[in-house]
Amino acid sequence: MKTATRIALAALVLPLLAAAHKEAHTTEEIEVQRALQAAAYHCAPAVAQFTAERKRSWAQKVLGGRPSLAGYEDLFDPQTYADLDVQSGQKLLSCVEEQEADIRNNSCVLAPEVTQGPYYHSEAHLIRQNIAEFQFGLLTLLDIGVIDVETCLPLPNALVDIWHANATGDYAGHPFPFPGLENEMPATEGIRKGLKTGYPRLKGYEGENWLRGAWPTNARGVAQFSSIFPGYYTGRALHIHTKVFTDWTPQPNGAFKAGRLAHTGQFFFDDDISETINKMWPYSTNPIRDTHGRVRNWNDGLNIFNDSQGPEGHYDPIFRLEKLGAIIDQGLVGFITMGINASAAYALA
Ligand SMILES: *[C@@H]1O[C@H](CO)[C@@H](O)[C@H](O)[C@H]1NC(C)=O
Ligand SMILES: *[C@@H]1O[C@H](CO)[C@@H](O)[C@H](O)[C@H]1NC(C)=O
Ligand SMILES: *[C@@H]1O[C@H](CO)[C@@H](O)[C@H](O)[C@H]1NC(C)=O
Ligand SMILES: CC(=O)N[C@H]1CO[C@H](CO)[C@@H](O)[C@@H]1O
């Protein structure tokens, strides 16, 4: 991260508006959330264009040296991206008139604010792109775009912080089962149906940081990560957590000091693709595979998947996945775009 860029950006940062919106509870909070989501709709064509460019860039980067691969030519055929092309005459990444724009068709997400859950490490994650460390699993590259819903422009220098479970459903620092809760059964009813207690970090595992990391968006508003496809645990659909900070400072230990929190959300995966991957090793060794099994998106605990689609259900919080090679074992790249309000700030929790 270049210091000059940071200083330039810091100068642009508006005075902190300390609206506390971790989760929308009050009528006012719900209204703010609704306004944010509604504002995002008109960015759909900009997001579509944004994603199409990123897909082309990946296709060229990944398959550039291997033209003998079947399907290689398709990657350079504009028809391959037909669903993502903007209508002729539109300016790239500019705001457009509000129109009927179904974001579901645009390989993106403009996620509302959802809870961070119990597995965040508040002393901050390391600033790094490769978060896999020595975790086994299917190579999954994450291409995460950030746009500002107020301008529909990609947002550079926003720190995208992510964390997720490993292939068999554990978070770094929180190995299951927690001592004393070995025989805990998931809740059978209510909003916590299917969930177990959110286990606190276990002593002796404080140093574990795998599958956690943060990286700033580049000049084109994109943060890319190398990781593995996540695994599942009781009560929750497969997901990756994220927070976006528009103000942050790198620390000498490689982590960051959080400033303005602009977004808290979760990304999901297509249930059919998850089903395929969960047949692969080591996903197939998930300890709850034959008992509780994997929770489908529609049945997500705390209703987080449904809530992530926004009050009108128009948001698509699902990564669009493409194979990196000819077969799935060679890995995937997932595209998603977050719409955030760069001038809003939420309470750090
Ligand atoms: C973005 O946040 C600012 C500051 O809280 C607020 O005034 C504005 O209405 C928000 N915009 C949207 C689209 O929610
Ligand atoms: C996931 O993490 C847990 C806890 O550290 C570990 O026991 C398990 O082996 C890991 N899963 C895989 C597939 O490596
Ligand atoms: C989520 O929405 C779907 C479709 O509307 C519905 O069938 C399902 O019951 C909802 N899930 C929860 C946990 O309420
Ligand atoms: C290309 C594409 O995904 N089109 C879909 C857009 O959304 C409508 C309604 O959900 C679907 O019917 C199309 O298949």
Just name the CATH architecture. Sandwich
How much of the polypeptide forms β-strand, as a percent range?
15-25%
Query: CATH class, anyone?
Result: Mainly Beta
What's the story with the biggest beta sheet?
5 strands, mixed
Number of domains as seen in the coordinates: 1
**SSE class:** alpha+beta
Following the backbone from N to C, one meets helices and strands in this order, namely: HHHEEEEEEEEEHHEE
Counting DSSP H or I runs of 4 or more residues, the number of helices is 5
Radius of gyration: 20 Å
Taken from the alpha-carbon principal axes, the silhouette is globular
Bound molecules: 2-acetamido-2-deoxy-beta-D-glucopyranose
DSSP, total strands: 11
Mean pLDDT: 76
Cα distance spanning the termini = 25 Å
CATH topology: Protocatechuate 3,4-Dioxygenase, subunit A
Unreliable spans: 1-23, 81-112
Give an account of the 3D structure.
By secondary structure, the protein is an alpha+beta fold. It contains 5 helices and 11 strands. It has one domain (27-64, 101-177, 184-340): Aromatic compound dioxygenase (Protocatechuate 3,4-Dioxygenase, subunit A, Sandwich), CATH 2.60.130. The protein has helices spanning 3-12, 27-41, 44-63, 271-277, 304-307; strands spanning 139-148, 153-154, 159-163, 212-216, 222-228, 239-245, 248-250, 256-258, 261-268, 320-323, 332-340. The strands form 3 sheets. Strands 1, 2, 5, 10 and 11 form a 5-stranded mixed sheet that branches. The longest helix is centred in the first third of the chain and has 20 residues, at 44-63. The relative contact order is 0.21. Residues 83, 102, 104-105 line the site of one 2-acetamido-2-deoxy-beta-D-glucopyranose.
